[in-house]
Amino acid sequence: METAPDATLVRAARRGDQEAFAQLVRRYLRRGMAVAFEYAEAREDAEDVLQDTFVRVWRGLERFDPERGPFAPWFFTVLRNTARNAARHRGLRTHGAVPPGQAAATDTPYEALRRRELREQIEAAVRTLPPMRRSCFRLCVVEGLSGAEAADALGIAESTVRVHVFKARQTLRDLLEAWREEAGGS
Amino acid sequence: MSELHGFSRLPREQAYWDGLQSRVLDAVVEAGPGPERRATWMSPLAGRAWALGGLALAAGVATLLLLPGRDAERPTPPAGILRAPADDPSLVAFVTATAPPPLASLMVHPSRAQRHD
Questions:
Q1: Shortest CB distance from A59 goes to which of B5, B23, B31?
Q2: Is B15 touching A (CB cutoff 8 A)?
Q3: In which residue ranges of chain A is CATH 1.10.10.10 found?
Q4: Nearest CA in chain A to B10
Protein backbone atom coordinates (compact mmCIF):
# COMPACT_ATOMS: atom_id res chain seq x y z
CA MET A 1 0.00 0.00 0.00
CA GLU A 2 3.04 2.24 0.56
CA THR A 3 3.60 2.59 -3.17
CA ALA A 4 0.01 2.39 -4.34
CA PRO A 5 -1.04 5.30 -6.54
CA ASP A 6 -3.27 7.97 -5.01
CA ALA A 7 -6.23 6.83 -7.08
CA THR A 8 -6.03 3.30 -5.64
CA LEU A 9 -5.88 4.63 -2.10
CA VAL A 10 -8.77 6.99 -2.77
CA ARG A 11 -10.92 4.16 -4.15
CA ALA A 12 -10.15 2.03 -1.08
CA ALA A 13 -10.81 4.94 1.26
CA ARG A 14 -14.13 5.58 -0.47
CA ARG A 15 -15.09 2.04 0.48
CA GLY A 16 -14.36 2.97 4.10
CA ASP A 17 -10.80 1.61 4.28
CA GLN A 18 -9.22 3.74 7.00
CA GLU A 19 -5.75 2.29 6.46
CA ALA A 20 -5.82 3.51 2.86
CA PHE A 21 -6.82 6.94 4.09
CA ALA A 22 -4.05 6.86 6.71
CA GLN A 23 -1.61 6.22 3.88
CA LEU A 24 -2.92 9.28 2.05
CA VAL A 25 -2.47 11.29 5.24
CA ARG A 26 1.13 10.10 5.57
CA ARG A 27 1.76 10.97 1.93
CA TYR A 28 0.36 14.48 2.10
CA LEU A 29 1.23 15.47 5.66
CA ARG A 30 4.49 17.31 5.04
CA ARG A 31 3.46 18.93 1.77
CA GLY A 32 0.17 19.90 3.31
CA MET A 33 1.91 21.44 6.29
CA ALA A 34 4.26 23.37 4.01
CA VAL A 35 1.30 24.83 2.15
CA ALA A 36 -0.67 25.47 5.35
CA PHE A 37 2.31 27.51 6.56
CA GLU A 38 1.80 29.80 3.57
CA TYR A 39 -1.59 30.78 4.99
CA ALA A 40 -0.97 30.52 8.71
CA GLU A 41 2.48 31.25 9.89
CA ALA A 42 1.91 30.07 13.44
CA ARG A 43 2.53 26.36 13.66
CA GLU A 44 -0.58 25.69 15.78
CA ASP A 45 -2.80 27.37 13.19
CA ALA A 46 -1.17 25.50 10.33
CA GLU A 47 -1.76 22.22 12.19
CA ASP A 48 -5.42 23.11 12.77
CA VAL A 49 -5.86 23.96 9.10
CA LEU A 50 -4.24 20.71 8.04
CA GLN A 51 -6.34 18.63 10.43
CA ASP A 52 -9.58 20.30 9.27
CA THR A 53 -8.50 19.71 5.69
CA PHE A 54 -8.06 15.98 6.16
CA VAL A 55 -11.40 15.71 7.95
CA ARG A 56 -13.09 17.54 5.09
CA VAL A 57 -11.35 15.35 2.55
CA TRP A 58 -12.48 12.22 4.41
CA ARG A 59 -16.06 13.43 4.54
CA GLY A 60 -16.04 14.65 0.96
CA LEU A 61 -14.37 11.65 -0.70
CA GLU A 62 -17.66 10.57 -2.25
CA ARG A 63 -17.65 13.80 -4.26
CA PHE A 64 -14.17 13.14 -5.63
CA ASP A 65 -13.96 10.83 -8.61
CA PRO A 66 -10.41 9.51 -9.14
CA GLU A 67 -11.32 8.62 -12.73
CA ARG A 68 -11.79 12.29 -13.57
CA GLY A 69 -8.54 13.71 -12.28
CA PRO A 70 -5.64 13.35 -9.85
CA PHE A 71 -6.10 13.64 -6.11
CA ALA A 72 -3.42 16.26 -5.37
CA PRO A 73 -5.09 19.33 -6.97
CA TRP A 74 -8.37 18.50 -5.25
CA PHE A 75 -6.66 18.00 -1.91
CA PHE A 76 -4.81 21.30 -2.13
CA THR A 77 -7.97 23.11 -3.23
CA VAL A 78 -9.70 21.84 -0.09
CA LEU A 79 -6.67 22.93 1.93
CA ARG A 80 -6.63 26.45 0.47
CA ASN A 81 -10.37 26.86 1.06
CA THR A 82 -10.03 25.59 4.62
CA ALA A 83 -7.17 27.99 5.30
CA ARG A 84 -9.08 30.94 3.83
CA ASN A 85 -12.17 30.11 5.85
CA ALA A 86 -10.09 29.81 9.00
CA ALA A 87 -8.46 33.15 8.30
CA ARG A 88 -11.85 34.77 7.75
CA HIS A 89 -13.60 33.29 10.77
CA ARG A 90 -11.06 33.26 13.52
CA GLY A 91 -8.08 35.18 12.23
CA LEU A 92 -4.88 33.25 11.94
CA ARG A 93 -1.91 34.19 14.02
CA THR A 94 0.88 35.45 11.84
CA HIS A 95 4.41 35.88 12.86
CA GLY A 96 7.73 35.04 11.40
CA ALA A 97 7.84 31.54 12.78
CA VAL A 98 11.15 30.73 11.20
CA PRO A 99 13.26 28.53 13.46
CA PRO A 100 16.65 29.90 14.39
CA GLY A 101 19.55 28.89 12.21
CA GLN A 102 21.54 25.87 13.13
CA ALA A 103 25.14 26.78 13.66
CA ALA A 104 27.56 24.16 12.42
CA ALA A 105 29.54 22.46 15.17
CA THR A 106 32.80 23.58 13.56
CA ASP A 107 31.84 27.24 13.30
CA THR A 108 34.12 29.75 14.93
CA PRO A 109 32.30 32.59 16.72
CA TYR A 110 32.96 34.81 13.73
CA GLU A 111 31.56 32.25 11.28
CA ALA A 112 28.54 31.72 13.48
CA LEU A 113 27.90 35.45 13.51
CA ARG A 114 28.27 35.70 9.73
CA ARG A 115 25.96 32.75 9.27
CA ARG A 116 23.31 34.33 11.49
CA GLU A 117 23.62 37.64 9.66
CA LEU A 118 23.31 35.93 6.31
CA ARG A 119 20.25 34.09 7.48
CA GLU A 120 18.61 37.27 8.69
CA GLN A 121 19.38 38.95 5.38
CA ILE A 122 17.86 36.07 3.43
CA GLU A 123 14.75 36.04 5.61
CA ALA A 124 14.35 39.78 5.19
CA ALA A 125 14.83 39.47 1.43
CA VAL A 126 12.24 36.66 1.19
CA ARG A 127 9.75 38.78 3.09
CA THR A 128 10.08 41.53 0.49
CA LEU A 129 8.85 39.23 -2.28
CA PRO A 130 5.23 39.53 -3.45
CA PRO A 131 3.07 36.88 -1.69
CA MET A 132 2.64 34.43 -4.58
CA ARG A 133 6.29 34.67 -5.54
CA ARG A 134 7.27 34.11 -1.94
CA SER A 135 5.03 31.04 -1.72
CA CYS A 136 6.43 29.57 -4.94
CA PHE A 137 9.95 30.21 -3.75
CA ARG A 138 9.39 28.70 -0.33
CA LEU A 139 7.57 25.63 -1.59
CA CYS A 140 9.98 24.85 -4.41
CA VAL A 141 13.36 26.02 -3.14
CA VAL A 142 13.02 25.76 0.62
CA GLU A 143 10.57 22.87 1.06
CA GLY A 144 11.66 20.97 -2.03
CA LEU A 145 8.30 20.52 -3.78
CA SER A 146 8.40 20.02 -7.53
CA GLY A 147 7.02 22.71 -9.81
CA ALA A 148 3.97 20.56 -10.50
CA GLU A 149 3.34 19.96 -6.80
CA ALA A 150 3.65 23.65 -6.00
CA ALA A 151 1.32 24.44 -8.90
CA ASP A 152 -1.27 22.00 -7.48
CA ALA A 153 -0.76 23.38 -4.02
CA LEU A 154 -1.25 26.99 -5.03
CA GLY A 155 -3.80 26.46 -7.78
CA ILE A 156 -1.73 28.07 -10.52
CA ALA A 157 -0.02 26.85 -13.69
CA GLU A 158 3.31 25.10 -13.41
CA SER A 159 4.83 27.54 -15.89
CA THR A 160 3.75 30.41 -13.62
CA VAL A 161 5.44 28.71 -10.67
CA ARG A 162 8.67 28.42 -12.64
CA VAL A 163 8.57 32.10 -13.59
CA HIS A 164 7.93 33.10 -9.97
CA VAL A 165 10.79 30.95 -8.70
CA PHE A 166 13.15 32.30 -11.35
CA LYS A 167 12.30 35.91 -10.54
CA ALA A 168 12.45 35.29 -6.80
CA ARG A 169 15.94 33.82 -7.14
CA GLN A 170 17.00 36.80 -9.21
CA THR A 171 15.64 39.27 -6.67
CA LEU A 172 17.26 37.47 -3.76
CA ARG A 173 20.58 37.18 -5.56
CA ASP A 174 20.59 40.93 -6.23
CA LEU A 175 19.66 41.76 -2.65
CA LEU A 176 22.29 39.44 -1.21
CA GLU A 177 24.98 40.74 -3.57
CA ALA A 178 24.21 44.27 -2.43
CA TRP A 179 24.41 43.15 1.20
CA ARG A 180 27.73 41.34 0.64
CA GLU A 181 29.23 44.40 -0.99
CA GLU A 182 27.93 46.56 1.81
CA ALA A 183 29.20 44.19 4.49
CA GLY A 184 32.57 43.74 2.74
CA GLY A 185 33.02 47.48 2.27
CA SER A 186 32.23 48.42 5.85
CA MET B 1 21.19 28.49 -2.70
CA SER B 2 21.17 24.84 -1.67
CA GLU B 3 21.63 26.04 1.90
CA LEU B 4 18.10 27.38 1.77
CA HIS B 5 16.66 23.99 2.72
CA GLY B 6 17.78 24.98 6.20
CA PHE B 7 15.19 27.74 6.10
CA SER B 8 12.31 25.29 6.14
CA ARG B 9 9.71 26.04 8.77
CA LEU B 10 8.77 22.40 8.92
CA PRO B 11 9.97 20.56 12.01
CA ARG B 12 12.58 17.93 11.35
CA GLU B 13 11.91 15.55 14.21
CA GLN B 14 10.11 12.41 13.11
CA ALA B 15 8.33 12.30 16.47
CA TYR B 16 6.59 15.56 15.59
CA TRP B 17 5.24 14.12 12.32
CA ASP B 18 4.15 10.90 13.99
CA GLY B 19 2.27 12.94 16.59
CA LEU B 20 0.63 15.15 13.98
CA GLN B 21 -0.40 12.13 11.95
CA SER B 22 -1.99 10.53 15.01
CA ARG B 23 -3.81 13.75 15.80
CA VAL B 24 -5.17 14.01 12.25
CA LEU B 25 -6.26 10.37 12.16
CA ASP B 26 -7.96 10.70 15.55
CA ALA B 27 -9.90 13.68 14.22
CA VAL B 28 -10.85 11.72 11.11
CA VAL B 29 -12.11 8.78 13.18
CA GLU B 30 -14.03 11.19 15.40
CA ALA B 31 -15.57 12.74 12.30
CA GLY B 32 -17.52 9.54 11.76
CA PRO B 33 -17.78 6.83 9.15
CA GLY B 34 -16.34 7.35 5.72
CA PRO B 35 -18.33 8.06 2.60
CA GLU B 36 -19.03 4.45 1.69
CA ARG B 37 -20.21 3.51 5.16
CA ARG B 38 -22.51 6.49 5.20
CA ALA B 39 -23.85 5.29 1.89
CA THR B 40 -24.25 1.74 3.23
CA TRP B 41 -26.96 2.51 5.72
CA MET B 42 -28.76 4.57 3.12
CA SER B 43 -28.44 2.03 0.34
CA PRO B 44 -31.36 -0.25 1.43
CA LEU B 45 -33.58 2.80 1.38
CA ALA B 46 -32.09 3.97 -1.90
CA GLY B 47 -32.80 0.54 -3.43
CA ARG B 48 -36.45 0.90 -2.57
CA ALA B 49 -36.66 4.54 -3.53
CA TRP B 50 -39.21 3.93 -6.29
CA ALA B 51 -41.44 1.81 -4.09
CA LEU B 52 -41.22 4.27 -1.21
CA GLY B 53 -41.90 7.18 -3.52
CA GLY B 54 -44.92 5.39 -5.00
CA LEU B 55 -46.27 4.63 -1.54
CA ALA B 56 -45.86 8.24 -0.48
CA LEU B 57 -47.64 9.43 -3.62
CA ALA B 58 -50.50 6.98 -3.10
CA ALA B 59 -50.86 8.08 0.51
CA GLY B 60 -51.01 11.70 -0.61
CA VAL B 61 -53.68 11.01 -3.20
CA ALA B 62 -55.72 8.96 -0.75
CA THR B 63 -55.52 11.72 1.83
CA LEU B 64 -56.78 14.25 -0.71
CA LEU B 65 -59.65 12.00 -1.77
CA LEU B 66 -60.73 11.10 1.74
CA LEU B 67 -60.58 14.59 3.16
CA PRO B 68 -64.05 16.11 3.40
CA GLY B 69 -64.53 19.07 1.07
CA ARG B 70 -64.51 22.58 2.37
CA ASP B 71 -68.21 23.05 1.71
CA ALA B 72 -69.03 19.91 3.63
CA GLU B 73 -67.18 21.18 6.63
CA ARG B 74 -68.71 24.65 6.65
CA PRO B 75 -71.60 24.76 9.09
CA THR B 76 -74.94 25.38 7.41
CA PRO B 77 -76.54 28.53 8.77
CA PRO B 78 -80.01 28.20 10.16
CA ALA B 79 -82.49 28.75 7.39
CA GLY B 80 -84.36 31.34 9.43
CA ILE B 81 -81.43 33.73 9.45
CA LEU B 82 -81.07 33.91 5.70
CA ARG B 83 -84.66 33.45 4.58
CA ALA B 84 -87.00 36.39 4.94
CA PRO B 85 -89.68 35.34 7.36
CA ALA B 86 -92.61 36.28 5.14
CA ASP B 87 -95.06 34.92 7.67
CA ASP B 88 -93.82 37.11 10.52
CA PRO B 89 -96.74 39.49 11.19
CA SER B 90 -94.55 42.21 12.71
CA LEU B 91 -92.30 42.27 9.65
CA VAL B 92 -95.28 42.38 7.29
CA ALA B 93 -96.81 45.24 9.28
CA PHE B 94 -93.51 47.09 9.26
CA VAL B 95 -92.99 46.74 5.52
CA THR B 96 -96.55 47.63 4.50
CA ALA B 97 -97.02 50.52 6.96
CA THR B 98 -97.69 53.94 5.40
CA ALA B 99 -96.13 55.82 8.28
CA PRO B 100 -93.12 55.09 10.43
CA PRO B 101 -93.94 52.97 13.45
CA PRO B 102 -93.96 54.58 16.86
CA LEU B 103 -90.72 54.28 18.79
CA ALA B 104 -92.26 52.19 21.55
CA SER B 105 -93.42 49.55 19.08
CA LEU B 106 -89.82 49.11 17.92
CA MET B 107 -88.50 48.69 21.44
CA VAL B 108 -91.13 46.36 22.79
CA HIS B 109 -92.33 43.34 20.93
CA PRO B 110 -96.06 43.64 20.30
CA SER B 111 -96.76 40.17 21.67
CA ARG B 112 -94.95 41.02 24.94
CA ALA B 113 -96.60 44.38 25.09
CA GLN B 114 -99.94 42.68 24.77
CA ARG B 115 -99.05 40.24 27.54
CA HIS B 116 -98.14 43.10 29.92
CA ASP B 117 -101.37 44.85 29.13
A1: B31
A2: no
A3: 109-185
A4: A34
Min distance A116 CA to chain B CA atoms (Å): 12
The model carries a pTM of: 0.61
CATH of domain A109-185: 1.10.10.10
How large is the ipTM? 0.74
Return the minimum-mean-pLDDT range out of A30-44, A73-87, B92-106: B92-106
**Which tens digits make up the pLDDT trace of A59-105?**
998 888 888 889 999 999 999 999 988 887 766 554 333 344 444 55
- Collapsed DSSP state (helix, strand, coil) of residue A68: coil
- The class (CATH top level) of A6-90 is mainly alpha
Report pLDDT digits (tens) over A145-185.
Answer: 999 999 999 999 999 999 999 999 999 888 888 877 776 65
- Partner B, chain A 65-94, Cβ-Cβ below 8 Å: none
> Total domain count for chain B?
1
**Residue B34: exposure state from Cβ atoms within 10 A (0-12, 13-18, ≥19):** buried
Contact residues, chain A, for B5 at CB < 8 Å: 142, 144
Q: Chain A: nearest CA to B43, how far in angstroms?
A: 13
- Asked whether residue B12 is assigned to any structural domain, the reply reads no
Grade residue A32 by pLDDT with cuts at 50, 70 and 90: very high
Q: Exposed e or buried b for every residue in A28-61, given b needs 16+ CB within 10 A?
A: bbbbbbbbbbbbbbebebbbbbbbbbbbbbbbeb
| Contact with chain B for residue A169, Cβ under 8 A | yes
